[in-house]
Each structure stands twice: as structure tokens, then as C-alpha cells.
Amino acid sequence: MHLKKLKLINFKNYKERQFEFSDKINAIIGLNGVGKTNLVDAIHYLCLTKSFFSNTEIENINYSESLFSIKGNFVKEEKENAVICSYQKSEKKIVQLDRKPYKKISDHIGQFPLVFISPNDTDLIRQGGTLRRRFFDNIISQQNKPYFEALIEYQKVLKNRNTILKNHLIIRKIDFDLLKIYTDQLIEKAEKISKERKGYVEKIQNQVKDTYLNFTSTEEQPNIEYETKKGSFGSWKELINASQEKDLHTGRSNVGIHKDDFTFFLNQKEIKKFGSQGQQKSFIIALKLGVLQHWIMSNTTKPILILDDIFDRLDDTRISKLLILIEKLSLQVFLTDARVERTKHILKPINANFIEL
After folding, report:
1. How confident is the prediction for the chain on average, in pLDDT?
2. How many domains are contained in the chain?
3. Do 161 and 251 fall into the same domain?
């Protein structure tokens, strides 16, 4: 699979611009501030119906306009598909596939898979569990539709259950029968989601380890552990029911898969606490490339890979090894860099398509 053409209208700093891409490596080069990251963010938006960086849709609109539109032509299994994502202020976002709007935008997820590597990815290590859950949920959801649907349902049930618990704090009255219905649904979804998360982490371990070894040429052993709050309770039913009294007092659901975490280790030591900056950068790149390799092994459609401004964070040796790994994967890649001559020199042995902004 690859993105053949892209047209932007009023997306971030782009008023109107069209691009054509190679199905191999595309190097987007130019000085800082010209829109390199905005361009690859538009590709992320086409694939996942949201920005990698912006939290609200209004942030994606060119400052002087009231709407934006992104159109891309993908080639997938020898068939060309047109995807359009558009948003107008005070209106709902619209996502179309071959001119037909999705009834549910979530149905688009997984159609055109993508992995995005950015300079700030070490936040996955340094910051809280919310980022790590979001990362793994996004990756698994692109490959596993039932998981994505269970995740959506879990969030709905969690919201409804929390509404009942919050109301109890205000009016000191509660419908325990309704609370039990939502609690049972929460338990059912939690069991499915935690099982899939645990299984996915087990599946990608070898790819992450092999990638880290190839990338760093060290004997350091990376590892990922999925940490569920189930603990000694043995089941989500026991844990969530045991927490009900606390939930009633606090007005929220204190346990569930929305509180779980993923911990990263290097040589059995938590990399957040003991890893150097270089080790953390290498771990995250190995994690994302490991995820990519597992995907290729498990699916017929190869994802798009985006490397946003990461050359500045790597030495020449690791850049060279990264390019070797990417070439072996044989997929469409978009990379950005502000140092034009350096990028042209690095990619000289590779027949890359250069897009200078």
C-alpha cells in the first residue's frame, strides 16, 4: 500500500497545495517553519482521521479560514482509493472513502495503516500511562477491529457508570440495578481488552529485541510488560466489584483497563528510571519498528512509515543502521529534515524522492 497523491486546502500553514509521492522513500526537506511536519501530519490525518499533534480540529485550520480539506489517493492491492477528510468550524468532521461518507468514522481505522516516529516519542517513556495506553490502543486498533469496537464500548460504559457515581455524590441516591448493569458490561469489556493487550505485547517482544540489537549492536535486552491492576484478585469481576465502595465515595471508577500501564525495561531495569537519553531514543525506535515488522508479518497490507525530524537525534552510525532496516522492510516511507544537503548525502545511495518545500 502507498499514498500516490495528496491535496491540501487550508490545512495548517497550507492554503492550497498538491503533492505526488514515490511508493518508496520520500524525503521532505526545507528550512524550519516551512511546513514539513504539517505535511506528514496531513498523511497521519488521512490514515487515522486525526492529527498526530493537534488536540482540537480548529488547530488544524489555516488561521484565516473556517474549514480544511485533505484528499489522498492510495494504491492498495492494485486498486486506487480516494480518501477525503474535511472539517468546518461548528460542524462535524467528515471522512469519505471513494466519495462515500462513512456512517461511523471509526470504520476507517485500519483501512490505511500507518506508524509515526517523531522526536518527542521518548515521552512514551518519561510521561504517564495515558500516553502508553493510547499508543498501544492505536496500534492494536488498526489491526484488530473487534478490539477497537470493544475499546469504544468500554469508554461509553465507563462514561455512563461514572455519571451514576458522580450523581450519587450530589443527590445521595443511586439506582444499584442500573449500576450493576454498567458494572457487568465494564467487566466484560475489560476482560477482552486486557487479554488482547497482554497477547499483543507477547507477540511483538521478539521483533522489538531483534530491532534493538540490529540498531544498537549491543547485547542489551529490551522488554515490555503489560501491567494490569487486576493483581492478586485474579479477575476483573473480583477487582471491580471490590472497588465499588471506593467508587461510590469518590464518584468515579477507580479500577479498570483505563488505569493499566505498560512498563519498558532494558536489562531488567526500568528504562524510565535508569536508561540514558540515547538508550531511551533507541528503545522507542526499536519499539515502533518492531511493531511495524510484526504488522508486516501478520498482515498482507504494509503500513506507511513516517519519520519526522529524527536524524538530529541520532548519530551517523545509527542513521545508517536505521536506513538499512527501512530498506529491508520495502515499504513507503516519509521522512522530514531541515538540513537539506545532509539529507541528500545520507540518502544518496538510495533512490529517494526529494520534495523541497
Report:
1. 93
2. 2
3. yes
Contacts of 70 (CB under 8 A, 6+ apart): 6, 7, 8, 9, 11, 42, 45, 46, 84, 85, 86
SS3 350: coil
β 304-308/269-270 pair status: unpaired
Please say if the pLDDT value at position 123 is more than 70.
yes
pLDDT for 8 equals 98
* Position 218 pLDDT exceeds 90: no
Quick check: 301 pLDDT over 70? Answer: yes
Tell me: do 41 and 80 sit in the same domain.
Answer: yes
- In a shared domain, residues 192 and 153: yes
DSSP letter string over 25-73?
EEEEE-STTSSHHHHHHHHHHHHHSS-SS-SSGGGGB-TT-SEEEEEEE
Do 352 and 340 meet the contact criterion of CB atoms below 8 Å apart? no
Q: Which residues contact 52 (CB under 8 A, 6 or more apart)?
A: 41, 44, 45, 116, 118
- The DSSP H or E segment spanning 122 is none
Q: Are residues 167 and 248 in the same domain?
A: yes
**pLDDT for position 242:** 92
Q: What is the CATH number of the domain that holds 78?
A: 3.40.50.300
**Distance between CA atoms of 139 and 193, rounded to whole angstroms?**
13
Do 182 and 149 share a structural domain?
Answer: yes
Q: Please give the average per-residue pLDDT across 293-307, as a whole number.
A: 93
Express as a percent the part of the chain with pLDDT over 90.
80
What is the distance between the alpha carbons of residues 185 and 200, in angstroms, rounded to a whole number? 23
Q: Which domain holds residue 205?
A: 126-296
